[in-house]
Amino acid sequence: MSTAVRRVLVAVASRHGGTAGIAADLAAALGGAPGVSAVVVPVAQQPDPASFDAVVLGSAIYAGRWLEPAREYAATHAAQLRLRPVWLFSSGPIGEPPYPPDEPHDVAPLTALTGARGHRTFPGRLDPTRLSFGERAMATAMRAPVGDFRDPAAARAWAAALAVEIGAASPVA
């Protein structure tokens, strides 16, 4: 194994900051691993995956789907993503236990498109003060549980496992 530092891009689409918080936890844990550095960049900034050795791509889930900017990012950069280790994560289930329990609709096609090695769903956050009027009305009508259901320890544990895989991978030339 080489002693070169593996650069990891954590690219994220977050509507109200909850998923961005999970991405920050992932990047902090990845960057704390020996031989790994990580940076969080919103997908809206179109970070070039070619300058990274690995990519963790994540999105908030609304109505069972990834946000459009994350889906577009995956499609636009699919060729580069397939050349390096990629993992996907989703954020959005809320409540105890987190609901809905199903995988987001986009996971299988995005996994195939990017060549992702895996996917993880993390519980999300529902903070009515961050929602638009329409979103608050929808959350109220659905009787969605309000609160922060994110699990930073679970994000750190997953990042630690990814760091081991990333450290064992050869850097992309």
Which key terms come to mind for this protein?
173 residues; alpha/beta; Rossmann fold; 6-stranded mixed beta sheet; two-stranded antiparallel ribbon; 6 helices; globular
Q: In words, what does this structure look like?
A:
With 173 residues, the chain is α/β, with parallel strands linked by helices. The chain has a single domain, classed as Rossmann fold (3-Layer(aba) Sandwich). It contains 6 helices and 8 strands. Strands 1, 2, 3, 4, 5 and 6 form a 6-stranded mixed sheet that branches. A two-stranded antiparallel ribbon has the order 7-8. Helix 1 packs across helix 6. The longest helix is centred in the last third of the chain and has 17 residues. The radius of gyration is 16 Å and the shape is globular. The two termini are 15 Å apart. The mean pLDDT is 85. InterPro entries: Flavodoxin_dom (IPR026816), Flavoprotein-like_sf (IPR029039). This is Flavodoxin domain-containing protein.
CATH homology superfamily: Flavodoxin domain
Helix content: 25-40%
How does the major sheet shape up?
Answer: 6 strands, mixed
Termini separation comes to: 15 Å
What is the number of strand segments? 8
**Helix vs. strand class:** alpha/beta
How many helices? 6
Strand content: 15-25%
**H and E order:** EHEEEHHEHEEHEH
Q: What's the shape?
A: globular
Low-pLDDT stretches: none
Count of the domains = 1
Protein name: Flavodoxin domain-containing protein
Domain Flavodoxin: 9-143
